[in-house]
Amino acid sequence: MSTATAAKRVIKNHLNELSAREWIAETVSVFVQKGLGANHAEAQIEREHPAPFSYQDVQRLINFFTKPGDKVLDPFSGVGSTLKACALSNRHGYGIELVGKFHNLAKRRLATEVDKNLFKLNRQILIRGDAREEIEKFKPDFFDFVVTSPPYWNILKNVDHKATQRLNNGLATKYSDSPRDFGNIKNYEEFLDALVGFFERCSRILKPRKYLCVIVSDFRHRDKLYMFHADLASRLATQHYKLKGITILYQKHKKVYPYGYPYAYVPNIHHQYVLILRNDGRE
């Protein structure tokens, strides 16, 4: 190739609008969680959810895996962190939430925490319903990106130091009492099977070679540590998806509790995993 030809060559970024320098920074396998601080005015709705995640963290994923104008789905949207991030990033967000309380909080959050002028550039659609039913209403290859933090198993019902503090502050310690709630499935293997089956069905509405990011944490239940991220990743990466990477999200601002003291070692889990999978099943 001549020097003139090489000079004319343009590398087109098909995935996002980041520069090479920005791209490299986002591929480091450990993120430090961002946040506004517990007392910030825009953190008050977010903390109503028993397992929230920062809109700033999900915004990093949205900016890497999509371009402006792309359509993003969060099938377990909670209090709307993903849709707030979509609004601020000029993406079209779709959120599905089973629990009416959290659905309404998400609507209030978008109304109070996002500049209304941004909605002239993009739309944010909140759907109240069972995600298993609602995803069937979308056309095939509709979404450019699926990102979510799915319901945790029934561990949120454990009354530990954190749960006691939330109860004392009048905050929820579990998602709901609904039998349709994934978090209320009693058996861990059944819960895992249901979640994997759901994400496999999401591959129909996610465009080929586009990405699914699932934000999860390992957890303890009674005296057993469950490697939730590994169990979920290994099962998802067998049919429609290829596992492309796992990013650790370090939650340095989480409170520390005296779990196990003074009898046994019990860790304060201060990180989550971002499972990064590509939809390659229909190639």
Please give a structural write-up.
The chain is of the alpha/beta class and about 280 residues long. The chain has a single domain, classed as 3-Layer(aba) Sandwich (Rossmann fold), CATH 3.40.50. It is built from nine helices and ten strands. The protein has helices at about 5-10, 20-25, 55-65, 80-90, 100-115, 130-135, 160-170, 190-200, 230-235; strands at about 30, 70-75, 90-95, 125-130, 145-150, 205-215, 220, 225, 240-250, 270-280. α5 (about 100-115) links the parallel β3 and β4. The chain starts with a helix and ends with a strand.
Structure in a nutshell:
It contains nine helices and ten strands. The protein is an alpha/beta fold. Helix 3 (55-65) packs across helix 4.
How large is the count of helical segments?
Answer: 9
CATH superfamily: Vaccinia Virus protein VP39
Gyration radius, in Å:
20 Å
* Beta-strand residue fraction: 15-25%
Name the helix and strand elements from N-terminus to C-terminus, one letter apiece: HHEHEHEHEHEHHEEEHEE
Characterize the overall form.
globular
Q: Say how many strands there are.
A: 10
For this structure, what is the CATH class? Alpha Beta
The CATH topology turns out to be: Rossmann fold
* Overall pLDDT: 88
Regions with pLDDT < 50 over 5+ consecutive residues? none
> Which structural class best describes the helix and strand composition?
alpha/beta
The largest pleated sheet is described as: 8 strands, mixed
Strand arrangement across the biggest beta sheet: 1-9-10-6-5-2-3-4
In the CATH hierarchy, the architecture is: 3-Layer(aba) Sandwich
Give the domain tally. Answer: 1
